[in-house]
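User: quick one, fold this
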Amino acid sequence: MAENFHVPDSEVPFLQKTYSERYESLTIQLTSLAKQIELMTPMLIQLGIIEDVQQAPTATVIGDDGYNPSWKWLQKIEFLLNLAMIPKTSTEIVEEIVKREPKESRSRVMNSVPATLSTAANNVFTNVKRKLNAKGEYEYWIDNLPF
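Assistant:
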């Protein structure tokens, strides 16, 4: 769900290199996680945590990008910021969550997202960073992105 934006020609090679490296890194992480799940599944069955591979809990996923409505607020926000790859205001994040979760109360999302962002932003335990934009609104992004 990335938005179109103008990139100066002089920056294109840098961004191509940066984003292709990030994509490769995420692909490696995803493969590693899939292997870990594959290795854990028999143990989870044996311990009685799940009954069998077919009955393993599956997340409710909207779209094919992996978004999960059952995540905690911070997980949802981090996922959307990683997906966007550009800074977003809390209003833009709220709109994206409301669009993805039409059954969720808009007022609950409008209260929860800014509260989560104000706690998480620039916190040493999260990758969420923020700065004031030209309009005086906070914009949020994930620290591992090249801004």
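User: anything notable?
Assistant: The chain has a mean pLDDT of 82.
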